[in-house]
Amino acid sequence: MVTALARAGFDDYVVYERDGAWTFAGGALATVTLDATHVRVRGVLDSDIEWSGSPGAALRKALDSLPVRDWRAYGRVHFGFAGLLPGLGLRGAAAPAGELVRLLIPRTEVRIADGEVTLRGEDQDRVREILGEPGVSSGKPTLVDVRVDGASYRERVAQAVKEIRQGQYQKVILSRSVRIPFETDMVATYELGRRGNTPARSFLMRLGNLEAAGFSPEIVVTVSASGDVTTQPLAGTRAFGRGADVDAAARAELESNPKEIFEHAVSVRTAQEELRHVCVAESVRVGDFMGVKERGSVQHLASLVNGTLAAGRTSWDALEALFPAVTASGIPKPESLDAIARLDEPRGLYSGAVITAAHDGSLDAALVLRAVYQEAGVAWLRAGAGIVADSTPDRELEETCEKLTSVAPYVVEKGA
């Protein structure tokens, strides 16, 4: 499995799973980073350029400047990227600090799909040797308590419900972090967690000082080289995996609960509106409305929203239009982002995206939820819930616990 390569000593790497295909991108041929003022390229080309206007356009220009034929990039986009987007930056607030995007153009790229292995770039003999070696045991997980800090979260939910009923906004996602009291073996955690989850996308990465492993329940956006655009909002949640009868009862309650249906419907409506900004208006359509997707320890209401890019629009425009995901921010987005800034902790990568992008204009962005994060030996989990007028603090706290249970049972202590 590609995780053998993650153990092989590459300084930076990204493992990305999509539609049954696994990609490992390791070693930096080039790195592209973006903050509030500059986009920087290091590696085969060194540049430091001040940007303004569209951050997506700045990234696309930097990538297109690379002297790399048929480049593909892999990386992360932090939630704070939203503060750079026209119309979403908070009035009177300083620009988001620090690095918000880091993309890796790999020296070594391995794709495994349908039993076939495709190698690209450097170290191909080394890669074949690593893939041919016996697998390493994933280790045993260590219990992580996900029910800490309940009182604080209930208070924040109650405040959001009050503001919603006052008409300040319709919906907001509030989250809470759970500190893991030991350094985590991220590769082993990913291997165990992937066996226990059914994600839309999964990822494992070490980029700079940040590590993350996750089992994304939904995409922010997918754009094909021909300009087909898809997003899949998931909103409305109940527990899953507690037995056939209990799961069926939870599904029936999910599909008939007014609060969950409202939360989902307004999210789908917002996704349609956002796609119309970058797509041919009449091409925007909804498919599989309010189906149910099972994602590890939870099940969600899910819908597909599709469109076709309008002339002159790019995949980066589509990412900007849909970022941050409505299911991880709220409605309307500017007002919900203001509430998140007041009521949530700084998010970092949580509810941002892990992305792949290519020279042909294609792009795939997985929403970063159901993940474990680690930096400087400190590891944590994080989960949120969608708050609307009919929300109750106890139920929303329980929803975060249900989501955290998609990851917490699989966390492996380093060296254990």
TrEMBL record:
Task: Tell me which Gene Ontology terms the entry assigns under biological process.
Answer: L-tryptophan biosynthetic process
Highest taxon, organism lineage: Bacteria
Q: Which cofactor does it need?
A: Mg(2+)
What is this protein's record name? Salicylate synthase
Q: Which organism is it from?
A: Amycolatopsis pithecellobii
List the residue ranges forming a coiled coil, or say none. none
Q: Which UniProt keywords apply?
A: Lyase, Magnesium, Metal-binding
Tell me the leader sequence span.
none
Q: Write out the GO MF terms.
A: isochorismate synthase activity; metal ion binding; oxo-acid-lyase activity
Q: Which NCBIfam families match?
A: salicyl_syn
Any idea where the Chorismate-utilising enzyme C-terminal domain is? 151-403
The protein's matches in Gene3D superfamilies, at most eight in alphabetical order, are given as: Anthranilate synthase (3.60.120.10)
InterPro entries per the UniProt record, alphabetical? ADC_synthase (IPR005801), Anth_synth_I-like (IPR019999), Chorismate_C (IPR015890), Salicylate_synthase (IPR019996)
